[in-house]
Recover the amino acids of this structure.
């Protein structure tokens, strides 16, 4: 197979399919989602069989338990994919929404109408459920999608892709509306990143290395989902009971996620009362603490933090802790070391809260709540394709709306430019 | 001067300045605009003197009359820059707008708040008034800007930059809020395009070559302003009087702009009545017509159109004309040859109008109005930094709002992720 020709065929097919999809009715799009949901459940055994091949290969290749866990497609995983599709059916179709409209002095009526982006390429790693998730969200928002999953999941993805194709057909949609890159050849990605004029946006999901490499090579706009170095700042006016609950949740509830707390900042006036208290709780959850000298006065068992610790995204039960003299110092620390993902202040003081929310430049800024809440589901978007750390186009959790663009539709009666 | 160090200093300075600017009050930002407006008028003679150097150099270098015209800064040009600034003062500050807000079942209040993009790099060609326009729009939207103008305008730009710096100082703003690249060394642009983490977005304005080269080299998101191959389709149900007015305006009123009509599509049923009529009018305005064989039956004096003509952005008094059998054929032609900028249908038939607006994928789609209306001023945005042909982030005319991003501010009372 000539990979360049193959990728070009996918991209041209997606572009053609996207023309019809852009004005496909919600009923037709939901019919696809419904067929897919049903066929996932019906084809459970086939899916598990294909998945077993991936699992065996992963074991033979000596891949880590964490990767094998992510690869696994069992009954409950299949059930939850099928239910996820029903959730997407229940979401409002964003396409066609008149976002704004106004009449100009010369009488023309200008409407700003939500439209699909067009063709979306999603590049992701080994979770096969991402295939169904990406396909469903892109299609509901009227986009054609080209999916490139991790090579470890190729057999699972091919089995899922067969069901996707069947469901597109049943719904009467162009079968090129969703396409899986059926080769694991790495050059396929390089050709996709050069398919200007055919592909409208690239969304890479995965580790920082993958995302950086895609962003550097791509000639097509990329929406990035970089790391989260999230902070909770416990202010001098914090309610320490809230602070304890929030910090514990932000660190411990699911430490491997991008919205987990990586650094805790504590005002010097409450360090003496708060640090021993939260320290004990974190110690109970086996969290390793790396602290500044002031922190280590109160938590003598803590390790010493180095400059690198302030930049670190541990994704693990490790926490950097720094005592700061003021809310300004906390904001400065976040500006310098943070990743503009999710940051929180715990305070009862409204002036400090306002200062923090105004000056911290992150996708999500919290007052008295856990950074773990940055999530499409928690925000009420129903589903998310990821969390953007970009400022252009979409910032924070990306749901259906964030997979759209807009166009201006202008209604006149012969108006011209004078 | 070490260009890399110099550019890095500009970018670091802009990033630092952007932190304060992001929450600068509207009063302070407007005070800058007001001081600048006043100083432009007061320093008229200095500006004209500096501009004369550029004009002389351009003449010595044998540059075209068109370029020299664009370079020229005379009294009326200076006056209109000063008035443009007053218009920007009158525009609503987009920063801080609560775009949406909702409460979740767990009690958290989520607000989506408009914030500046951060640091914007504008790369443009020889018009010195673009310097003031870009500076004023970026700053009003709370962004720091790094401006890189054409080398032909360097003396004019340096003189304007002195006034900008003075006005920033008078307003009490960081002088690094707006910075001009003071060298004409070409490598400066290359370094700017690599300033990831410091610069948030690049906006190139100018010819297609400039924009393509920036888009290919940049590691930072680029908002592109590509060409406009705009169409007017005269439907079988067109009011031919409206069609004549619109087509004439779209082609002749200002042919060198990106929203001028480049190809006219005419339904075969009205070709016999419409083509001689519009042909005569266009001939009177010295428009050269390049037609398909059917067109040339009705306009025997027209030249023969080649395949390249359907793709052409003439920016001149030249028009490609094609007779088509249906609205579907018109839509297909636009999908194949168009540039997704601005396209119009002239029709009295609502089904055809709806089909056209639903299926033509362009930034602005018109029913019975001229494509020349695609413009920030005409749309009521007050001012524009350009017209985006991208689908990501901003599409069509870009005003102040399009120079912003947003963040989520979440107010809680101790909520955590369960």
């Amino acid at each position: 197979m000539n990979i360049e020709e193959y990728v070009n065929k996918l991209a041209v097919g997606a572009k053609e399919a996207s023309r019809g999809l852009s004005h496909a009715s919600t009923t037709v799009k939901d019919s696809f989602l419904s067929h897919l949901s049903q066929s996932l459940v019906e084809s459970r055994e086939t899916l598990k069989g294909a998945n077993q091949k991936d699992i065996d290969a992963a074991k033979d290749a000596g891949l880590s338990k964490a990767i094998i866990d992510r690869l696994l497609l069992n009954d409950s995983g299949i059930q939850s994919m099928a239910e996820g599709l029903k959730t997407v059916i229940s979401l409002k179709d964003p396409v066609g929404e008149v976002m704004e409209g106004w009449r100009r002095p010369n009488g023309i009526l200008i409407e700003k109408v939500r439209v699909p982006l067009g063709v979306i390429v999603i590049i992701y790693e080994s979770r096969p459920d991402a295939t169904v998730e990406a396909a469903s969200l892109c299609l509901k928002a009227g986009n054609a999608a080209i999916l490139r999953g991790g090579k470890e999941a190729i057999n699972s993805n091919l089995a899922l892709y067969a069901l996707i194709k069947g469901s597109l057909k049943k719904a009467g949609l162009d079968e090129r509306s969703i396409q899986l890159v059926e080769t694991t050849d790495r050059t396929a990605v390089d050709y996709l990143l050069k398919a200007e004029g055919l592909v409208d946006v690239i969304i890479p999901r995965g580790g920082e290395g993958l995302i950086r490499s895609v962003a550097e090579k791509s000639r097509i706009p990329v929406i990035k989902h970089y790391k989260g170095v999230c902070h909770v700042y416990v202010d001098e006016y914090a309610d320490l009971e809230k602070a304890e609950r929030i910090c514990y949740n932000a660190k411990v509830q699911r430490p491997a996620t991008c919205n987990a707390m990586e650094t805790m900042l504590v005002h010097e006036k409450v360090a003496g009362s708060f640090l021993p208290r939260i320290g004990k709780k974190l110690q109970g959850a086996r969290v390793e603490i790396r602290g500044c000298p002031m922190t280590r006065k109160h938590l003598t068992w803590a390790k010493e933090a180095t400059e690198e610790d302030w930049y670190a995204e541990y994704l693990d039960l490790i926490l950097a802790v720094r005592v700061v003299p003021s809310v300004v110092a906390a904001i400065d620390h976040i500006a310098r070391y943070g990743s503009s993902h999710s940051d929180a202040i715990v305070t009862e003081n409204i002036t400090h809260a306002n200062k923090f929310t105004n000056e911290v430049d992150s996708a999500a800024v919290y007052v008295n709540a856990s950074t773990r809440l940055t999530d499409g589901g928690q925000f009420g978007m129903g589903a998310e394709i990821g969390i953007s750390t970009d400022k252009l186009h979409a910032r924070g959790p990306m749901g259906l709306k964030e997979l759209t663009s807009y166009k201006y539709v202008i209604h006149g009666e012969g108006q011209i430019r004078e």
